[in-house]
Amino acid sequence: MSDRPNIVMIVAHDLGTYLGCYGAAIDTPNIDGIAAEGVRFSEHHCTAAQCSPARGSLSTGLYPHNNGLVGLTWGWELNEGIATLPQLMRGAGYSTHLFGVQHETLPGGDFAERLGYDSVSGRGRATDIAGDFAGWLGERSADGGRAHGPFFASIGTSEPHRKYPLEGPDVDAPEDVEPLPWLPDREGIRRDIGGLNALVRRFDEGVGIVREAIDSGAFAENTLLIVTCDHGIAMPRAKCTCYDPGTNTAMIMRLPGRWDDGAVHDDLLSGVDLMPTLMELAGAPVEHAIDGHSYLGLLDGADYKPREDLFTEMTYHGMYMPMRCVRTRTHKYIRNLAQMPLVVMPVDIYEGPAGREMADEYYSSPRPHEELYDLQADPLEQQNLVGEPGHEELLCDLANRVDAWMEESGDLLLTGRWPASEAHVANMSQRLYEERFAEWMQRTLRDWPEMLWFLE
To answer: How many Å from the N-terminal Cα to the C-terminal Cα in the chain?
Structure first.
């Protein structure tokens, strides 16, 4: 076997930090066990609280507006020539394998080659995908792993993406769940949490299968196991926002003999930092220009320059919803660059019980152009300090950081509205007439008829 570690990365759909080891009111013993035996990052944040852009950043080390994936893959794609993590791993001598879900490009055709995977397999529930990986790893371990070089495996699950089950033996009763701290305690929200819990436990079970397959085979001592996700949970004021419940994401790593002491790091980390970290670990540091920075030194207790801030964004998600945000350890500034409701909820959230509970509140007033939050005094980001006395200097500093970031990266929003792709316009034009959008559009256009711009 190679001295370079194999890398197994499990990527959940819409999980955020909703795990027991991050303080959520749910039992996730398999993931919590990996955290106890490895390292956990408490302030890892995605670049955008939506599936494709967040995953694109994990894979390319670039912000969405720099790699082209500014919305979901039914309207957007990575720019030509953008190198992905599997491609770079393959160039470094790793074989590359996908089990289950990817959301960086449209499936079909030569998507495996486009992303850089040597093989693709496995669909279904998290436990099924994990079982496929376990079978593959068992075959690879048959001769002690001596006939193979190092491998990179990405294991993607649909869990815990909506729709949440609202009944069944695995679903928690509303009275048995704990409310989310940033939302009011309402019946519909509790019902959704009960279904969310069922899917998170299913994901945890799948992680347990992967962990057992690694630990019981020939690669137990030389495999980095990563548990992460794309963005926050699909609940109001989380997914598709720049608030912490949308951007704060699980990042747990375990590498026996190296990162195995249960350490918890609270350094600010961005999704763009993962790819360069893994490439440095693989012995092939990234030589082309990217937005991220390796934190291998932080993991190994070596030289490492901590981030002073990190940036998040939104541009398209079904509709045009441009936001740019900077977060420091103590404060957050959000700039909203179009007329929007107070909180936009993607249709999967809006249609659920929690969305119905919050629709009147979120769609009855417009979103402010700027938001400023003191994360120490107000960690749930409930009190917007823009316009409050005593915060002018801080507001100016953070606004200037966003300006500088947008200018340095050539963000198209500096020139006005980000142009829609033809695929996005065609898709939205069709979906506007679907029955499930009727109520949402009626409510939105009643109060803000100018929101028709998202079809332009």
So the answer is: 55
